[in-house]
Design goal:
2 domains; single chain; globular; Arc Repressor Mutant, subunit A; 8 helices; five-stranded parallel β-sheet
Amino acid sequence: MTDPSILIVEDDRNLAGLLKYNLEKAGYTCRHAISGEDALLQLREKAVNLVLLDVMLPGIDGFEVCRRIRQNALWGDLPIIMLTAKGEEIDKVLGFELGIDDYVVKPFSPRELNLRIRAILKRDRRHRNDVQEVLRSGDLEIDIGRHTASLDGQPLTLTLMEFKLLSLLMKRKGQAQSREVLLSDVWDVDKDINTRTIDTHVTRLREKLGDVGRQIVTVRGLGYKFEDEGE
């Protein structure tokens, strides 16, 4: 099995070199991009397993890079960890709303970063290598093992977190899920992240699902549930 590959998007060459050294020591294959434009170019040239994305970049910033990755059909579910010197909640919320999988606030220890990377890659593999399970509701189909989603026979482009959120709601069909439970079970984070993250992802899911999006029902004062059409 080849080593997981990581694209480090960081304009500070000293920090990028340190990250590359520690991650390669931990068993990863690393590439380095010095700007947002460079990162997008490298992604077009060769696939990676995860992106470490700095927020403050020359030209296109990290938030815009994340937005473009999530809008691309080929990279839409690529795991992203955002590196930021800002610890304010608004930056965390914006990152999660754009579809990042985790964030690390500078300065951070190489051990902490490695643990977060391992956790994300592990659960990403778990989704991709899960037992064969297909969830259906009308013309909506989620294939857990293949990590694919389709509507009316046409593929749906979902981010990793959108896929996980929709899968969980469909698995627990008819059961109301609080925002706190969704944060814990989908994002693996505690209540310190603003729950607007959930609302933003549900809004995007509904838009992508069209009329089927109405089956994601708001449970007032609590969270959401998925219902079959006509229930």
